[in-house]
Amino acid sequence: MLDLIKFEAQFFVFCLTTLFTLINPLGIAPLLVVMTERFSKKERIQIAKKGSLTAFYTLIIFSFLGSVIFKFFGITLEAFQIMGGILFFRNGLRMLEAKIGRSRTTPAEQEESLETEDIAISPIGIPLIAGPGAITAAMLLSSQTPQLYSYATVVISLFLVLFLVYLILRNGDLVIRVLGTTGMRIIQRLMGLILLVIAVQFVINGTLSILRPLIASSL
After folding, report:
1. Alpha-carbon distances, residue 31 vs 87, 91, 128, 187 (angstroms)
2. Radius of gyration from C-alpha coordinates of the chain
3. Residue spans of alpha helices (H) in 74-171
4. pLDDT of amino acid 98
5. How many Å separate Cα 67 from the centre of its chain?
6. Residue range 180-202: average pLDDT?
7. Span 153-173, mean pLDDT?
8. Domain segments of the chain: what residues?
9. Dihedral pair phi/psi, residue 40, rounded to 5°
10. Phi then psi dihedrals of residue 62, to 5 deg
């Protein structure tokens, strides 16, 4: 019994550290804050909840059925990486060009507000939080569970990491208040640029993963 508890504790620490590193909530925090700063406090809380839950459900599904889903639809992780890069690139351009701190008062702007709330699902939920790395980690960790109840360890680890992401996104207004409008505008441009670079790197990684076996086989 003690050996079982010790093993599960070690496996829990392994899952927690692996998922925390790959999801990197502290690293994506500036992006999350900048992408939601134009929303009100209530809207940011809704986005935080929806985005975190979207990522949680996505990673849970892929941890149990990831390999089956990929095989059934003929999807590769490389294709997922390239798709994520395209989404990142689109939103990076928006962050570079958008003006912040503007209230939405006209019907058209209110309609735009409803439309942009979908960023909670994409790109915040997928693929910013639940990206290719996190999905791969969830699939690999679930495949290493020696006992059926060890899946609970993976689920708890996912919950704790994504709860931290939720807290960061929910309290983004504290960061906005400290930095002010000018500081947020500067960070928005910088994060947009960084997001564009991440997008290009995602596409490069996915493309190289596809081309590398072809090049090796032709030599």
Report:
1. 14, 11, 9, 9
2. 19
3. 77-97, 107-116, 132-143, 150-170
4. 60
5. 20
6. 78
7. 87
8. 2-218
9. -75, 170
10. -70, -30
Task: Please indicate, yes or no, whether the overall pTM of this predicted structure exceeds 0.70.
Answer: no
* Tokens standing for residue 144: 């290493």
Interatomic CA distance for residues 196 and 204, integer angstroms: 12
> At residue 140, what is the residue type?
L
Helices (H) and strands (E) in the chain, counts: 8, 0
SS3 40: coil
Taking the C-alpha atoms of residue 60 and residue 156, their distance in angstroms, rounded to an integer, is 10
22, 133 in Cβ contact below 8 A? yes
Q: What is the pLDDT of residue 53?
A: 94
- Both tokens assigned to 114: 């409803």
Q: Is 176 helix (H, G, I), strand (E, B) or coil?
A: helix
Q: Which residues contact 160 (CB under 8 A, 6 or more apart)?
A: 16
- Nearest CA to 34 out of 184, 210, 142 is that of 184
Q: Are 152 and 79 in contact (CB under 8 A)?
A: no
**18 with 137: CB under 8 angstroms?**
yes
* Long-range CB contacts for residues 176-185, cutoff 8 Å, separation at least 24: 176/33, 176/37, 181/100, 181/101, 184/34, 184/37, 184/100, 184/101, 185/100
SS3 76: coil
Alpha-carbon distances, residue 119 vs 55, 88, 151 (angstroms): 12, 12, 30
